[in-house]
Amino acid sequence: MKGIYPAQESDFEAITTVWEASVRATHHFLQDADIRALRPLVREQYLPMVELRIYRDEEQSIVGFLGVAENRLEMLFVAPQVFGLGIGKQLLRFAIEQMNVSELDVNEQNPQALGFYQHQGFVITGRSPLDGQGNPFPLLHLRYGQ
Known about the structure:
Elements: E1 3-6, H1 12-26, H2 32-46, E2 51-56, E3 62-69, E4 72-78, H3 87-99, E5 103-107, H4 111-119, E6 122-128, E7 139-144
Parallel strand pairs: 4-5
Antiparallel strand pairs: 1-2, 2-3, 3-4, 5-7, 6-7
């Protein structure tokens, strides 16, 4: 059945594939070399550090996922072929309602994601000029229902 499920380590490669496709479709400020450098970090370091949930479609393919650490949404990505179908919203609602998410960061250079989170009730509370790896990709800090 389609829906949201806990991720297994055996899902990491499919999750990373969704991450890369989503990033290539939305993070136009990143160069190909940036994405290629991030991919093994996502697969080997970042995914094991968060509580993961996956979204499986009717064919049981993973088409979206989220990662949470404490009350922070650390990652939410949806495959480009299912953009606009409400999967990101379902994942975010699950994170808020079932995983107590109240904070997240979004790349300032990704206005589509910022608009999505604001539409879902998040408000900007701050800004950092660098991303988590120290690169010049500014982050906006958001909080739910401020």
